[in-house]
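Could you help me review a protein record that somebody else here produced? What it holds is a sequence and that sequence's fold in token form. I have pasted the whole thing underneath without changing anything:
=====
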Amino acid sequence: MVRGKAVKQAVLFRKADMLILMFWGMAALILFLLSARGIGGDPSGACLVIISGNETVGRYELDKDQTIRIGEGNTCEIKEGSVRMVSADCPDKLCVKSHGISKPGESIVCLPNNVILKITGQKGDADIDAVSE
């Protein structure tokens, strides 16, 4: 320190710097809130697609509660926007033990009975992408 002279302290942030930081902070907050909500992701557009063998058995909206019989061995239930397998005649019953599904991309599979319950985003995009044998 120099005697007799006042030493200026360094200024960490100027007003312009603070405005830029506040702008980016608000932008980050808005993006976070939109992604947490699912930008434009309307869950009411979700649809259940049931595939048995290599054929689509049916498409059902998730907003209507119902019980659906699939072939002779499986029964699924749509309740409060969620789908679950309630009964199956397969030996391991893994499909019955699995949790309910409600979001596009989720699925429940019963391998012994060759049944797939799949949630899609819209009614029209429910086709199988590929089948391998």
